[in-house]
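Box S2. Input/output pair 1.
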Amino acid sequence: MAALGNKVLVLGASGGIGGEVARQLRDGGWQVQALKRGLATAAEQRDGIQWLRGDALERDDVVRAAQGCSVIVHGVNPPGYRHWAEQVLPMIDNTIAAARLEGATIVLPGTVYNYGPDAFAGLDEQSAQRPLTRKGRIRVALEQRLRDATRDGVRAIVLRSGDFFGPQAGNSWFSQGMIKPGQAVKVINLPSDPGVGHQWAYLPDVARTMVELLERREHLAPFATFHMTGYWDADGTQIATAIRRVVERAGGRARLRRFPWWLVGLVSPFVTTFREMLEMRYLWRKPLRMSNAHLLSVLGTEPHTPLDQAVETTLKGMRCL
């Protein structure tokens, strides 16, 4: 029997998507709990969120924190691209174990890593998942474990979207590859091959979509997957142009240039993060566009902040304006 009430555990609340979902749930009247390593006390209340000392890699910590929760938001990932193979699947197994005990719904921010280039044309929730990368195979395995758990009473919602950006997005291509946080924007890098489109997602819009899906969770399939459209950058330059437009309105000047993939390739044998970035380059070499038709059939509309407003809020949050 599913747990009742509006108590939720957010794993990864210190990060980008987890933090944004936690804040929006709090503002919507949910009782929000979150795990955090290294707390001086067993629990502390801060900004309307109950922070509990614990680690998503420790099953007992997750099970204890999830007591009485009707929802678990699994927004936790190993930092950067490192330790995926060792940590991603154990963490989802812990979340599933806690959800099974509480009858809770799991909400997962999905990625496009599940898909190989063969699926990019007309990508929807039924597209074949044939990833070419190690991280993609891990994400497929993660979602398969969620799907298997729904046969045993657990419910799950997966929301996939494009590359994140936002005022508190943490590690992202926007903040780490295109511009530099904490500095006035002088140069904007273009990761896409010339003319190749790319899909982006504004974190507050992604979080709002998750919250709205949660409000309808009792009417969804046990394993429900959705795609967001977000922002479609048709030629790989439109997000960069929006950044430059916002910077110039604030009195600055910025120029566009191609991302130095050659340098990443040169250094990748010696730097793990660069090696992992190179593995994902296929996402910038073929246009990736997801259909949100299924999402619209449930919500009616997709939360969508005007692009320049989203970019300006992001740049201010990154201390770039």
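Box S3. Input/output pair 2.
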Amino acid sequence: MMLSDARTRRSRRTVRDFLGYANCVGFFAHLLAGPLVRPSEIIPQIARAPQTALQAQDLAEGLTRILLGLAKKLVLADSFAPLANRGFAAADHGMALTLIEAWVAILAFALQVYFDFSGYSDIAVGLARLFGIRFPENFDSPYKAMSIRDFWRRWNMTLSRFLRDFLYVPLGGNRHGEARRYLNLMLTMLLGGLWHGAAWRFLLWGGLHGLYLIINHIWDRAAPRWLRLPRPFAQGLTLLAVLFAWVPFRAPSMEASVSMLRGLIGLNGFALPTALIALAPPLGWIARAVPVLPALGDARTLSLPEAIALLALGWFIVLALPNVAQASARWRGAGLLASFGLMIQALFFAGIAQPFLYFRF
């Protein structure tokens, strides 16, 4: 990225200063997992920092972003991790997940990966702000996206920009006809998948998103205006496509991916705990009664209601509330107040520290 920036006329003078380069490379706030910050974006800020007094607003904003990022990680992401881990571990061990077990696992993982990585990005943005450095935002409510193209404008925004400018455009972009554009889209997303790890499952994840983007472009070009999907259906279809693509991304193996997909489409049947069917007998007409749903982790009757309540809360936050960058000071204060006690509990009493997911990639 540094060499590419140095080639552009606008950035040549900025990024060829060795001291600026060293400060940029060594700036700890973005070293591990992003946001992917271009040298020309922060070297001038680092150069101005000694001459610019740190503002109280920078300190307040930085600390707020750090605390909200910790809340996302410790209170939200780590709460959904057990639900996702149990389901995918069961699939990896050959268990035939039923419809509800599979959907609980994938819905939990989608929330886990979002709150985990966006929380990390908030912490990185906040740390930089403590030094008067402004990082670009990395998430913009991606699960509210109206299309796959819109999703990639909102999810890991700095990676999307990197893939566009350093892979898609050099490959030719859309300059050589539609067929070449679709090939470039697929190659870009396949390489984006390999960015996360040298495994077939990441290649499949990237390939699915490449296919989604191609279909999105064809639909936008060919579909008449009257056939365009209403907003709720477009958002729902986009989210469904993203959820199915998360399966190979998270599953430990291709066999586990197939097992999870079979459960998601109902090929392994629909089951509910016997105790719940006893409370609502009409449920027995559509679901078979089982003592427990083993992929939910234990034999308690309330495992399923608790999981559904937790997922409902998470998806309400994601789909109905403003994100951290959009939220007003009142919303941010309410979020900090609501999560403060739970953050303290997680910091001091959690049994196992959960690392950030993107540290693996």
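Caption for Box S3: Residues 142-193+201-249 form one domain. Strands lie at 271-273, 288-290.
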